[in-house]
Amino acid sequence: MGSTTDIKNGVCIKFNNGIWSVIEFLHVKPGKGPAFVRTKLKNLESGKVLDNTFPSGAKIDVIRVERRKYQYLYKDGDTYHFMDTSNYEQITIPKMAINAAEFLKEEDTVEVLFNTADESILTCELRAHVELEVTYTEPGIKGDTATNTLKPSTVETGASVKVPLFINIGDRIKIDTKTGAYMERIKS
What we know:
Elements: E1 2-3, E2 12-15, E3 18-28, E4 36-43, E5 49-55, E6 59-63, E7 65-76, E8 79-83, E9 90-94, E10 109-115, E11 120-125, E12 129-137, E13 150-155, E14 160-164, E15 172-176, E16 182-186
Antiparallel strand pairs: 1-6, 2-3, 2-6, 3-4, 4-5, 7-8, 7-10, 8-9, 10-11, 12-13, 12-15, 13-14, 15-16
């Protein structure tokens, strides 16, 4: 058992009959009245995001979690297979537990979050940014850099990403895995 002083980004708590991760928090001490902690929580089972306010000093049930690195092997339907590189043990994770599964490429390293109480898998998180090659897009026209117009493209994992007009087939681009948005072209 902990209190609101233990709330930090990434902390997992038991709340409303589920396991929730703290995405954002803000300790507020108004001029009048008691202090409180405003949080944005994400349900690790359903992915639902909830805003909640805890009174300062309230008791919360903090869950001990462990982050482990795994390597992505292959996809089988809606199930993804990963391997622990230290002992070659393999695990399977359903698609709904993976953030940005559409950007997973074979041999990518991911971070898997485990509940230490029962060794259950909570989530699987990719790096903040991935670099992928564009496999299809309409041809770009030289000089099309003045506007912010975007066009659809397909990357090597099969995911669709909106890119600027100057991006061509074969270009490597950096993609934000949280939003799925184009960030920049990688110079070769």
